[in-house]
Amino acid sequence: MLNNFIWREILIRFALVFFCLVLWRHGLNQIAIPALTLAWIIDGGLQRFWRIIKEPLVQAILVLCAALLLGLLWSDYPDGGRMKWKKYFILLTFIPFLSLLNKARLPWVIGGLLVGYFSVILFGVYQWVILNQQGVSIFGMSYLNFSAMLGVGVILTSYLALTVHAKTLKTLFLILALMLFFVQFHQNARGLILTTLCTLAFLFFLLYRIEVKRVVAALVSLVIVIVIFAFNSTVFQERIIQVKHDLELLQQGNYSSSVGYRIAIWDVGIDGITKKPWLGHGTGMPASYFDNTVVTYKNGIYKELPSFQRTSHYHNDWIEMGMHLGLLGILGLFFLFWSWYQSFKVHQLPILGATLVCYIFLAGLTDSFLLYNRIPILLLVITAITIIWQREIQKNKDSYQ
Fold first, then answer.
1. For each successive 10 residues of the chain (401 residues), what is the average pLDDT?
2. CA angle 235, 372, 94 (to 5 degrees)
3. Rounded to 5, what percent of the chain is helix, strand, coil?
4. Which residues does 307 contact at the CB level (< 8 Å), separation at least 6?
5. Strand partners, 276
6. Crossing angle, helix 167-185 and helix 190-208, to 10 degrees?
7. Element of type H or E holding 225
8. How far apart are CA 192 and CA 247, in angstroms?
9. Which of 62, 30, 29, 88 is nearest to 313 (CA)?
10. Which residues 6+ apart lie within 8 Å of 313 measured at CB?
11. Residues 6 or more apart from 188 whose CB is under 8 A from it?
């Protein structure tokens, strides 16, 4: 009996750590997610499902995924649809992951997450400094994914630097935040850099909103850091020049640029939502709608876009979900963000919750952030760790009372 318990615990810890280590490699998810699910079942997760469903974020994930499945009833998928929408279902991994976590397993999970995260950072820095390339090719990560994970690191370490009391830890987290921010400044993802900056400003406001002088001081410090990094980043300067070039093309009616392409697909997407505002075009249909509409839309002003870039999503979480499910999907997405914040608030970390949700929301305005392969999983893992950590703190407080 004791041996069975030991082997079961080894299997569960291995599944958790393995999941944290390999979430950066897309192909290995096909092994890690079934292993995590199997460990959850072995641990009696199905019998405890009624407990885990009380978590606000779990409820929202189930509602969103149920709505996407329901949307198949009025779509032409799979004949005309594509597979991108299935990435939303990776949010379901939050359920077994959170259910398996406890005090004894928490250090293993944190260790696995940190090892995996900083391994990717090191490979990314090597590729940037030595190979002069963007992203992390060994993990199949584009510069967008790499910049997004750097942004998450900047937000989290900045929050810790501003909230911990120990001076040594404050200094350590501040240095780490600056290092991650410096690397992000040398990636091509303009929208994600701007997202990180705006989220940091929001974090300063939430922490110091009563103390105006501290808010101003924090924002001035942020501006100084931005100026220093910007002057030392040729990549950032090149992207600014690229924006000017994109705007010039836009004035000429040429949408074959990063900025023009986004404006065009947003225009088509919003028009598509207005045509079927309540239930959308059906799950899996947004990309097909674009292909079928772009040639004739507004007398064909965007007809050259398919040759510029193949459209698989709308570079905006809200438009993407609105195209799938209309108002039903938009409300489901709002419920997801609200519940994500509520999960932090319930566990007495409202500022961290609001900050991370702000980052997700802003990142989703210029890209389909929830369709990224790794970053939503990273944020869900951080959320689960935070929930269990706070539960243990509350238990300790209750035991002393």
1. 79 95 82 93 91 95 97 76 81 96 96 96 95 90 94 97 94 96 90 94 90 81 84 74 80 83 93 96 90 88 81 90 97 98 96 97 94 92 96 77 57
2. 135
3. 80, 0, 20
4. none
5. none
6. 150
7. helix 212-231
8. 19
9. 88
10. 84, 286, 287, 320, 368, 371
11. 134, 143, 147, 235, 239
Are the beta carbons of 144 and 372 closer than 8 angstroms?
yes
Residues in the chain: 401
Task: Provide the residue range defining the domain that includes 342.
Answer: 2-400
Phi and psi angles of residue 2, each rounded to the nearest 5 degrees, phi first: -65, -40
Integer Cα distance of 363 and 348 in angstroms: 25
Dihedral sign, Cα of residue 293, residue 308, residue 370, residue 47:
positive
- Tokens 């009380």 belong to 54
Domain total for the chain? 1
104 Cβ contact list (under 8 Å, min separation 6): none
3-state SS assignment for residue 201: helix
CA distance 95 to 53: 8
Do 342 and 327 contact (CB within 8 A), yes or no? Answer: no
pTM: 0.94
**How far apart are the C-alpha atoms of 126 and 112, rounded to whole Å?**
21
